[in-house]
Structures are given as structure tokens and as C-alpha cells.
Amino acid sequence: DPKIIQKPKYLVAVTGSEKILICEQYLGHNAMYWYRQSAKKPLEFMFSYSYQKLMDNQTASSRFQPQSSKKNHLDLQITALKPDDSATYFCASSQDQGAQNTLYFGAGTRLSVL
Amino acid sequence: GDSVTQKQGQVTLSEDDFLFINCTYSTTTYPTLLWYVQYLGQGPQLLLKVTTANNKGISRGFEATYDKGTTSFHLQKASVQESDSAVYFCALVNVGDNSKLIWGLGTSLVVNP
Q1: Distance between CA B78 and CA B70 in Å, rounded?
Q2: Minimal Cα distance from B3: which residue of A?
Q3: Mean pLDDT score, A67-73
Q4: How does residue B98 score in pLDDT terms, banded at 50, 70 and 90?
Q5: How many Å lie between the alpha carbon of B54 and the closest alpha carbon of chain A?
Q6: Which residues pair with A75 in a beta bridge?
């Protein structure tokens, strides 16, 4: 059974709309992350949370807002969507913030913005 | 700053061939080096990890050896199978930046039966 659940698996949106990407982890980890994967680019770190607190934000745009309602949840809200936002978004977790050498990833949400 | 370089975009092999995927890194600290594998439709998963303490990682027939002299961390496997077809990422733990990972671009391995 997958230990990190991401929903939906595929998402198609129109330019200017807003979407929320869902992530839940059942590994008992204290740190959660969002990464973005685009063609021809390295995996891009976006955010890290530890015990539901934002620890690091490497995303320049405020259109990307993580939301953590529970310790094992870290959703990603994206507003005013643009075609350039099209990518696969991965949620990940680790036991603690300092244990990023052992990251566990979900299967990703593939977002297409038309 | 710290960096990781994977120059091979794609490697195509036949079953039972020897696999070698190149990875070099640059860091001013003692490195922890990782290989992740991403199968189609899945997220990356940790394949193996090497630190200066153990110098070599081995997992599922794959191995990587940390070479400080050449600052390399190449991935090898003696005999690949079709099921090994995936994208392989080399990564470096950046201890100077909250232990964030610095990722290579990935190498797509295609193994033909």
C-alpha cells in the first residue's frame, strides 16, 4: 500500500484558475515537502514543513501556498494558474527535517494548464 | 556552491549488459551522496546512499563508490534486466542549506529484452 497518497493523479486546469493538490503521508514522519518535476530540469525543491511549520520556501511566487491541517497532511494550493505551472508535483516526507538524505516520495500529481 | 552533474541523458542497453551511469559532484563539505530511481508513473525512491564513512553503497545489485579524488559517484550494475528501465538520479545532501538535496538531471535507462 502506498504510504504517501497524492490526489489527484492527473489534473487539467485552465489558465487563471485555482487548484489544490492533496498529500497525506502514513509513515509517521515529522517533515514534509513539495517538489516540482519539469522536463529537462532537475527536481526542484519548493517547500519544507516540520511539525506543521514552514521551514523553507524556495518558490518565488506567492501563487503557491502550502497548507497543513494535520501533521501528516501537506496540501499545495496554486492560484492564478499559468501554462508554465504544468509539471508533475511530488509530495515527499522524511523522519525529520535533517533526514532529507532519506526522502520518501508520493506518486505525484501531473498538472496540465491549458 | 554545491552541484551535481549527470551528463548522460539516456542510456540504452540489452539485458545482461553492464550498466555504468556517470555522476560527478562538487562540494566543500564531507558529502553524503545518493542514487534515486524513478520508475514510470511513480515518484523517486532511494536506491542507495554513500557517505565518507562507508565509501560504497550496494542495493538490489546496484553499487556506487564514492571517489574523493575524482569527485565521482558513478552507479554500476553487472547485469541489467528489462525491469531496471527507469530514470536514475544522483543527488548530494547540501548540509549548508538545511540538508536539502541537490539533484542531477537524471539518466533514463532503457533496457531492451
Answers
A1: 22
A2: A42
A3: 93
A4: confident
A5: 15
A6: A67
